[in-house]
Known about the structure:
This protein is mainly beta. It has helices at 2-11, 91-94; strands spanning 17-29, 34-37, 40-52, 55-56, 66-74, 80-87. The protein is globular and about 40 Å long. Residues 5-15 have low confidence and may be disordered.
Amino acid sequence: MKKILVVIALLLPLQAFSQTFSGTLEAFAFPGSTLVIDGVSYKFDPQIKIYVNDTLAPMDAARANQKIDYKIEVRSTGEKFVSEMRFLLTEAEAEKYIVH
């Protein structure tokens, strides 16, 4: 039993974990894979998922000064990446970005 606990304790830091936050997107640069949320610069995962009202949206849906919920994933290396953004828009605003 002790061996199992030791193995789990050693492997735990190798796992990525994430937390969800809210803020305002200030800048989004796809070529550099960077974005700024509430004055803090982050890298984003190349496989980032962008949602508008729970519908998957294209990258160009990202606009400055939008209120968002975002998920920060901390990799085993300690690097922080934004892996998901959810834009908080009205139905009328969302219609511009959602492809039917």
